Amino acid sequence: MNIYIHIPFCHQKCHYCYYYSFVPGRDKIADEYLFYLGKEFYLKSKKYKLKDVDSIETVYIGGGTPNYFSDEQFESFFLILKKYLKLEFVKEFVIELNPAACSASQLGILKKHGVTRLSFGIQTLNTEILSEINRHYHDNPAEIIQLAGKMGFIINLDFMLGLPGQKIKDAQDAVQFVKKIKPQSSFWCELRCGTRQITKFTNIPSHEETVKMYELIKRNLARVGYRQIIPEYFTSKKMMPLYLENWWTSGQSLGFGLSAFSKMENVFSKNTDNFEEYADFLKKGKLPVRYVYKLSKEDEALVCLMSELKKGFADLAEIKKEFNVDLAKKLKKEIEQLIFMGLIEFKDSKIVFTDKGYTISSPVSNLLLNNSQYLVKIMDTAFNFIDNMPNLEEFIRKHFFIIDEGTDGKIVFTSPDKKSVGILEKYVKK
Ligand SMILES: C[S@@+](CC[C@H](N)C(=O)[O-])C[C@H]1O[C@@H](n2cnc3c(N)ncnc32)[C@H](O)[C@@H]1O
Ligand code: SF4
Predict the structure, then answer these.
(1) Of the chain's two ends, which shows fewer C-beta atoms within 10 Å, N or C?
(2) pTM of the predicted protein model
(3) Do 57 and 205 fall within a single domain?
(4) 98: Cβ below 6 Å to ligand 1?
């Protein structure tokens, strides 16, 4: 099983970021959050017998900016984890960090508590762009990252391509930075225009310009020994980190904190993203879950297809064997269309991206699944937090059958084929 813990605080909200996070408007909110996080651990550890489970393979602390926490708050946070999880059995322990907020003493605390992998968000080294996009940044992030490397952490660096005003020179500078730091891996994500603020920028590079930056990065990283595992991800060893491998394959994942999502067996659920509601639920001894969706076999086959495609190819015969769902038949029209567009090939029941398709594999996967079902859209809406996506409730009302709607704000709905069932619980302030 994999554990995900969401820390929703940031020092500034980057204009492009659609992940659930906010700049705290008052003191002590992080202390309160830790208090309720402890309660959620208490409830879930009883329900899932977490202390008995020595199969917790990975723990991922994401955000927001987990290192918004002060040193004292980090210590309280690890006390909670140690109380409810057997951390000594965890194979990979990851945390996302903004280098601008990272200190040597913070790194010491992370080391002491067994964190193995640090994922630093760089995005770009161009400080003009960083201030334009309202990011909390440091002029010289190298120093603290090099210190982390010396302390024996596995280092990942996150970059973004296609930021407003970004030019090929910025991509060259980013490559130089990677050569200097020598992280074990780096992630290069094309900007997804998921917020209203970012769509107002008129100087966002075109997709073609972004692809040019990406090609430059790919060529240069290959020269210094980095291998590409998935389109966005380059490592010094041909190995996928375990947490990614697990999320995309076996996928038992238990989420904690505001907006965190879980997938246990064939049930997806998502925590509320309203702090007041989160606290209310937990005060009453209830799990802070806002939204539950039970996958049908067909949904599961499609989720499996999406995960497999992240790795570059998918074998539809294997998926049929596992779920008894014939996706080759179901997606025939979409597959033919993408072959015609030169984006995929289909051989011996395997879908493989062409070179052209591989660089844009994410939108190609969405096209493949687009017409056939609602699951992907509902997951995008519910789980990816994109704030210019249609409202989840509106979406459900339009595309699903409502089978029950209570005065308590609970909506029970089913997919058009009536095989998947979901519950959306609206927050009704009492
Ligand atoms: C949610 S952040 C958490 C880490 C930390 N707060 C930071 O920014 O350094 C994780 C990563 O999501 C990516 N990200 C956020 N918004 C994005 C967007 N609109 N398009 C593409 N990637 C995005 C960035 O690369 C970022 O490093
Ligand atoms: S990218 Fe990171 S620092 Fe920026 S708002 Fe999102 S979570 Fe916060």
Answers:
(1) C
(2) 0.88
(3) yes
(4) yes
